[in-house]
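With this grant's support, we have settled on a layout for protein records. An illustrative entry appears below exactly as we store it:
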Amino acid sequence: MHFPSFVGLAARGREIVLRFPWTMAAGVVAAAASIIATTASDDTPWVRVAMVAALGLPLSLALTLLAEERGWTARPSAVLNAFGIALLVLLFLYWPGPDRKHEAIRYFQLNVGLHLLVATLPFLGYPESRADWQYNRRLFQGILRSALFSLVLFIGLAIALAALDQLFGVDVPGEVYGRLYLIMAFVVNTMIFLAGVPRGIQALAIDSSYPRVLKVFAQYVLTPIVFVYLVLLLAYLVKIIAGGEWPSGWIGWLVTSVAVAGLLGFLLVHPLRNERDEAWIRTYTRWLFIGLIPAAAVLLLAFWKRVLPYGLTEPRLLGIVLGVWLLSIAVSYTAQPNAGIRRIPVTLAALLLFTLYGPFSMTSLSVASQGRRLENLLRARDNPEKGREASAALRFLLDHGSRREIAAAVPRDLPPVDWDSVSAHRGKRDSVARQILAVAGVTYVPEYAYSRDGYVFFNATRDGATRISGYDWMLQVSSANSAAQRIGTDSVWIRFDTTTGVARAGIHQDTVLFDVTRLVQKLMSDSAARQDVPSERLGLDASAGARRVRLALEQVDGRRMGDSVRVRSWHGKLFLGRR
């Protein structure tokens, strides 16, 4: 057996670094910044450095391959990558980080769009050929190979470190394992992947090789899954049409699953579609895209159900954009079943990057929609939900720092507000929102004040001291734990009936009852109810014989339906003492 020499491995590694220096540099920076972020006391800028550097991996790879395919020398390639780095620096300066939901969605868009550029940018200006599929097939296999190899390397080295710790007494701090994982993920995984990136991409047009494992995977794994998904979607479509009801928001997960699995299967077997012995592929492709048309329509209908009463937000708009894209792709391939595959990544990348920044970005359109919604609500009369809905729209605008839209919606001058600090703290945001709506003559309704239908959640605040005088024992309890515990000579158990909402605690021969549902209803009756409540308000007291017992709840969640509420789970502490 011939083993590779260290000299050969070093030469191969040097070759990869020389071919993709910018990509490897991005991986090193991302790993180093991630390690610093896990150890620094203030990790916010380092998290941003790591995340922006991670974007440099697909961006630099796409630009380097573009320069290779154009036959450019090292200098123009370096200039092109330097331009990409400048864009990443601007992003770092402008992007505040993933703490707010809309910024996390924006990062997701950019990340997916840049990865799609790797699949399409090298072919810019060239007609579509078999090279597109062969190139992307190698990238797909490279992703799987590098993930497997780097994972095995990490597990092996982690076991070796644990052996040094346990067998030889070498102190290996726990954070070393996390740092090793980050190095493997950003550096080693990247190098293994880059080793498989082909040269001379256009020359792949004459490559007719096809790994049969891809056909087996598509035919015997993906196709049955897609078939089951499409049957479920068709049955659900019949159900909502027959019942005259709106589709559930959960339908988005099913449509996403069938789209991902179906399109992946279509792409994997695309080169075989015209072979005489592969008639099933043509049948699969035809019915896949026919089935995706009603699936995309149902998805759009589900999102439109939310948009009509509540306006646009980034998650809803992202769902609508992807639904429109999926519908257009399905109609396109239904009308042109022999079309190439390039339109799938190209159109998706263009759509995601086009809606990233600017007047047509998802954030700009959502802010404008919520601004109009707030203005209409503040002008409406005899609307029982005006306060609640106006409060939600105002919170959205405050989270986005949309001062202009708020000023345009509120009919009077705004109170003085420190706009830079509003979105960073929820308590500050609620206080400012209360002042702004008071100017408009509307009572502010907090985010976790409850409507007649929806989820219920209460959390005990941790600040302040807890009085424990008069109690001898304390134990952790929850709605899911009914096992008896031993305290001294007594056996203590607690069981929760989800139907009645009553917790029953047994201490030796005594039994006490705690009506958790009544407590939740009392908290919900408070118009200023919030998610976080003082711990003393989440306590229930009871006594039996010579015993006194207190159930101090720490978290409670359930669901409200009209005038009733059903508590689903809770956890907290049980205090035991003598009267």
Observations:
- The chain has four domains: 6-206, 212-357, 363-439, 454-578.
